[in-house]
Structure formats: C-alpha cells, structure tokens
Amino acid sequence: MATMNEIIEIVVVSMRDAFLAVTVFVAAMVLLFSWLQYATSGKFVEIIRERKKIQPIIGALMGLTPGCGGAIVMMPMYARGYVTYGTVVATLIATLGDSAFVLIGAAIADSSFVAPLIAVHLISFIVGVSWGYLIDLINITPNKPIGDFGPTFDYDNPQEFDESNDSPLDDLPREIPGGLSYKILHQGYVLWWGVTSIGLFFAIALLVWSGQDPDFNLELSFDLTTRDGFITWVGLLGTTLSIILYIAQRNWFADDTEATIGDKLHSKRETLVHAASETAFVTFWVMIAYLAFEFMMLFGGMTESDLARYGDGAIAVVVASIIGLIPGCGPQIIAISAYVKDIISFPALAANAISQDGDALFPLLVRHKAASLWATVHTTIPAIITGLMLLFLGVKF
C-alpha cells in the first residue's frame, strides 16, 4: 500500500525533474527555432514558390524543425494552391511536433540519446520525402485518395496557384488581446523566463556535477538554505509557473495555433511570449508522463523493465502509430517520453514520429476537412510499414 509520503515525493520529484531535465533545455531550443522562423519566414515563402519540383523536400525540412510552427505554416500554402498534396504529407510525416523537444532535452542531458534523436529525424525525413513524391507521382489527392488506381470524390479543391505577391502567411490570423488568460500569458512570461534562466544555470551545473562524480544524486530537500533544497524549489516554481501558463493558453492538447504562429512571425515580443507558452505546454505533458509512469509502477507493483516488455514488438509499433492519429502534441509527448524512459522500442518511436501530425492538422482541418482526414491515413500507412521494417531488421538504439 502506497503511503502519502511516497505519493508526495513522486509528485515533487516529477515536477522538479520535468523542469530541470526537460523544460530549461526545451525553452532554449524553442526560442532559437522560433526566432529563426521569425527571421526567415518571408524568404521561405519565396523559395517554395519558385521551386515546385523540390517542394516535398522543402516540406519535409519544414516538418523537421522542432515544434509545430514549420508544419503549420505549410497548411495555408496548400489551401492557397502554393504546394502539392504530397508536400503536405511529406511535412506531416517529417514533423515530430513539440515531442521533438523531449528527445532534444534527453540528448542534451544524456549523450546516449543523440543517436536515436538523429536516426528518428533522418528516418522521418527520408520516409516523408519518398512518400510525398510517390503521392504526387501517382496523383493522390484528397479527391483521389488512392490516386490513379481508384475512384474520384467530389471534394472542394485548394485554390489555383496564385502568382501574386501576396504571402500565404498573411492568411494566418492574430490573437485578439483581452481577457484574464491573455493578461496572464502576456505578463507572466517575463517571470517564467526569469525562473527558467535560473533553472538552466542549475541544470547545466547538475550535468557538470554528474560528470565529475558518477555517484552524484540530487537529494529531495525543501530547505532553501541548502543547495539541493534551493534547486528543488526552483524546479517546483518553474513547473508551477509552466502549469499556470499552460492553463492560461487554454489549448489542452495543442499549443500552437494559426494565431500564435501568425503572432510569432510578425513580432519579437510575441516570439518570446509564445516560446514560453509552447515550452509550458511541453512541461505539462512531460510531467503527466512522468507521473503516469511512476504511479503505474507504484500502484501496479511493476518496474520499468516490466513496462518495457509491453513496449517491444509489433503490437507496440501499431499502437504507437495509432496514438499518432490523435491530433495535437500532448499524447505524442507522452509517447516520446515513454521511449526516453526505455518503455517503448525504437521501431515504436519511429512509427509514432511518422504517424503523428502535431498541431498542424488543426489548421488543415479548418481549411480542407477532406485533406486533413486523408492526410492522417496517408501518414499512418508508412508509419506502420516503417516501424515493422525496423522491428524486423532489429534496429535498436
């Protein structure tokens, strides 16, 4: 029977570790890539306009950028007729959404995750490009879901390609100021970044201390006058602020919307605001994953090796692919966290990475319902095939 002290310890340690092991590193990466998107968005539109033959490659590269921003900006381009349907599918296959930051954070903290981080992105890119070109080659579209080999349905087509100078990024809406949630997010982000900066300092220090002493272990302490106690409170405060920002943004399963992307692409301040909210979103779901795994072991009497037995094999690959069907990044963060916790295999990780569409499916759903429906099918098929192939070949990391 679990005691209250054990439950409290699991909650506190999960909150502390989620912030110090994941959040602070994710924040740095989110800010970097958000700034790059802000700085290069206009140039990108011109590049993809002029190079239609390599659009699936460009789409897959956009999908590879951590977070959902790169994938989301592709959706209005499809609606405007700028890119092919194969490009959309290539983008969705390549993207890992916000769950990519979980792997990046793990790789920063533990070099053993560098190889799977590179491998899963490389596999997603290759599959995305290959599948994207195949789809365009045999003329697969939402109206012709199996291309030249099947019937044609009467769905609305995207607009014809427009040679005007209007950018499809102008189609992205903006957030409407006002309301308590907006104020919390647009004022609280300053405090959040302050605590995160302190947390990043201690997270790096923890890596140094662990490197110097293999037996080093951060003790659970609530005494602010001690090193471990102070670090614990930084982690608790950081996660608490992240939860507040997560609730304030009122997007439970998807953090990025067209409005937030539109804001980020046109404002440096909004880039900081939404980098904070995006990281807070990742923090919340990582904490949920940590708590779920720990409580399963506590109340189920299982160990991590017991859980890992269920995460290996063909069934795990199929289940991971099906989880990828769920729109939004939240469930996918839990799936990727399961790999970091050594609960699911690399083939299952790759299957989920290929199948998931992150938050990009929502703007596609608004603009073209048929495309969003068939896109989930057209990304899940290669996910299952690739996952089973990796499993058959015995690929492990």
Kindly name the structural category.
Answer: mainly alpha
Tell me the overall shape. globular
Radius of gyration: 21 Å
Distance between the termini: 36 Å
Query: Care to count the β-strands?
Result: 0
Number of helical regions: 17
Order of helices and strands: HHHHHHHHHHHHHHHHH
Structural domains: how many: 1
Average residue-wise pLDDT: 80
Question: Main β-sheet: number of strands, strand sense, barrel status?
Answer: none
Which spans have pLDDT < 50 for at least 5 consecutive residues? none
> Helical proportion?
over 70%
Approximately how much beta-strand content do the residues carry? under 5%
Task: Write a brief caption for the model.
The protein is mainly α and 397 residues long.
Protein architecture, described:
- The protein is mainly α and 397 residues long.
- It has one domain (12-393).
- It has 17 helices and no strands.
- It has helices at 4-50, 55-64, 69-72, 74-79, 85-94, 99-109, 114-137, 180-212, 227-249, 258-264, 268-300, 304-310, 314-324, 330-340, 346-355, 361-367, 369-393.
